[in-house]
Description:
Chain A has helices spanning 2-31, 40-55, 70-92, 97-117, 119-122, 142-168, 171-181, 183-188, 193-219, 229-242, 247-271, 277-298, 320-326. With 327 residues, chain A is mainly α. Chain A has a domain at 10-228.
Amino acid sequence: MILDLIAYGAFFLTTALTYAIMCLGLNVQWGQTGLFNVGVAGFVAVGAYVSALSTTPPLAGRFGGFGLPIVAGCLIAMVASGACAGLVGTITLRLRADYLAITTFGIAIAIELVALNAQSLTGGPFGIGFIPRPFGTLAPSPIVFDSANLALVAGVACLVFLAMERLARSPWGRVLRSIREDDAAAASLGKNPNRYRLQAFALGGSLMGLAGALQAHLIGFIAPDNYLPALTFQVWTMLIVGGAGSNAGAVAGAIVVWGLWSLSGLLTSLLLPGDQQARAASLQIVAIGVMLVVILLVRPRGLLGGSFRRRPPPNDGGSELDAGKLV
Amino acid sequence: MLEAQAVSKHFGGVTAVDDVSFKVAGREIAGLIGPNGAGKTTMFNLLAGSLRPTSGRIRLKSRYVETSPPYARMSCGLGRTFQIPRPFAEMTVMENVLVAARDQVGERMLPNWIVPGRVGRLERANVEKARSLIDFVKLGRLAGEPARTLSGGQRKLLEFARVLMADPEIVLLDEPAAGVNPGLLETILTRIAEINARGVTFLIVEHNMEVIARLCARVLVMVSGRILCEGKPREIAADPRVIEAYLGGAPR
Ligand SMILES: Nc1ncnc2c1ncn2[C@@H]1O[C@H](COP(=O)(O)OP(=O)(O)OP(=O)(O)O)[C@@H](O)[C@H]1O
Ligand SMILES: [Mg+2]
């Protein structure tokens, strides 16, 4: 019983940390640059499918199966998702924020439809199975298997977190913040706003791809309905709950929200009769929505809110007092 | 150094700048004056690339730049400040100035992971330079404060320090003295003169004639989108056409 609990805890944290990596990606896009990406699920899907196709053994009637090592699969996934984001960005970043949102949403849906219908490329509705798992040989002993996975994913998440922290505090991150505050002023100082936005968007996309690849290798199986808009909604909730703009907030938000998601899933499966289970799944989304509203009311800047304030700054010296009150 | 050749700018039916030509020579401080709505800020935006001229050309040193984007002007040595200051409100005074540094290794993404040592060394040198500029405009005590807490005059000073951090060869200042209290005004004026003595060219839009008289050897007068005349500040102040333009609204 205790061992099962530990194994479950490890499995839970492992999954939460893959979401944390997506959240870190969204944080550099939205939290630090203000790019409204509503297509998170699409970039995650690209990473998952690319890594799956790179690492699975060849399969008759389907593209790929290149049998590459898992590490190579993950790296190729990052490049593919990053390039995908770069392409989307090149087309849309000149657009206003709301158009970027619509475009990314549409592209994510398109990617999901490709996954569903391009059977010879993606395996169609049945997805891709037999994706190599990093510690597959340990699977018979759940506690060892889950702990090994946790150690691996925690290591990767930690590395990503440190890399993003360094970037946030670097001159690059400073230019990004300046562009977010006033891109015309930043341009007057010789910074090319669109170049930086594009970099941030591609970087965030490649992290989402990495997370997608990791999830694919942990579970060993992927299918199109892993990448519905609900995933995007989850990741956004995680970032807002944790505190947009803060990398630590992104990680904390992922763990808290995934915890609540799992708990509500557990409760509905315990409390409700079997024939109601399918409907109860939507209760989970309601629970997350309620949590989002509560956080926005109680702590609008999230649990570990970043330094970014949503209120417009006062325009002249006269309102210094008001500014003091807001902080 | 900087030359406008028959530059015009229309906004729909409004002609904000109408066939304007002038030159600014290297190392001079030139003034640009004119009544409200004359088109001075629009002219600045054309020179700095925030707006594209409807017609005409703009030469910066040896290059024609009228179609190049605003961020490319700085690499040609042109910096500008805004009529209403635009500090990065949530960033500290120090960070505001640091953003402007040119050729920072750490401004590219990868070096921050690959050669953090080099990034750090350059950053320390930049912090030192930024600190001396911040002290230079007397904001030393406020270096760690967010820019939103600054008064209007202090924001003008911050923008001045920020643009200097990029080592421009020519700076366009839009009303550097507007809304600045007399103590700070003195600081701004002496600082402009000192920087000019180090070889930086200035083009200054200003309504305060005392400021113009103290700084500028040559003044261009703009009225209703056109250059009315140019000359020494004292001649300009006595020119009946200029007086009429200021008192009587539109000329002729
Ligand atoms: N974006 C715009 N769209 C339409 N008209 C504009 C625009 N910008 C400026 N104008 C018009 O162009 C004319 C010149 O404006 P501009 O701001 O350049 O004047 P200015 O000389 O800087 O005045 P001030 O001394 O008040 O700052 C004005 O009539 C103004 O209404
Ligand atoms: Mg003006």
